[in-house]
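Q: I'm building a small set of examples for a reading group on sequence design. Run inverse folding on the following structure and report the sequence directly after it, with nothing in between.
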């Protein structure tokens, strides 16, 4: 799963550099330009990928004990 998350990060990095909606004046829902809608989708996707990264690819440090409840 860790490599899948890295693949999604790489895919988002590539998809972030769009060139195809710069000259398109289409409105989504009659109010939002298609380029802005595209970047809103990329931003939501980045948030989902970040959640997956923290859930599945975050390094685990087993050397600290957080269950003692004492002073740090």
């Amino acid at each position: 799963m860790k490599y899948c998350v890295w693949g999604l990060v790489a895919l988002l990095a590539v998809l972030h550099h769009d060139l195809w909606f710069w000259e398109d004046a289409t409105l989504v829902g009659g109010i939002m330009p298609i380029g802005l809608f595209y970047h809103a989708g990329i931003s939501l996707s980045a948030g989902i990928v970040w959640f997956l990264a923290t859930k599945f690819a975050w390094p685990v440090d087993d050397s600290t004990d957080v269950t003692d409840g004492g002073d740090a």
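Residues 54 and 61 are 13 Å apart (CA to CA).
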